[in-house]
Design a protein that fits this description.
- The chain has about 60 residues and is mainly α.
- The protein is about 35% helix and about 0% strand.
- It has four helices and no strands.
- The two termini are about 25 Å apart.
- The relative contact order is 0.17.
């Protein structure tokens, strides 16, 4: 059983701190795939400035 189902999880304060954001960071994304990363990065990643492709995320 998933923990989040049995016990609600809250986001830690540090995760919502604006100083912990970056601007357009493409971890291990070659320049030719950055347009893909701009479109495909999950919303939670994008709002923190982390841009990654679906392929890269699937490998993780």
């Amino acid at each position: 059983m998933l923990v989040s189902i049995t016990r609600p999880l809250t986001t830690p304060d540090w995760a919502n701190d604006p100083s912990r954001r970056t601007k357009n960071w493409y971890p291990a994304v070659p320049i030719i795939f950055r347009d893909d990363a701009d479109r495909e990065s999950p919303a939670a990643f994008r709002k923190r400035g982390i841009l990654i492709t679906d392929r890269s995320l699937a490998r993780a």
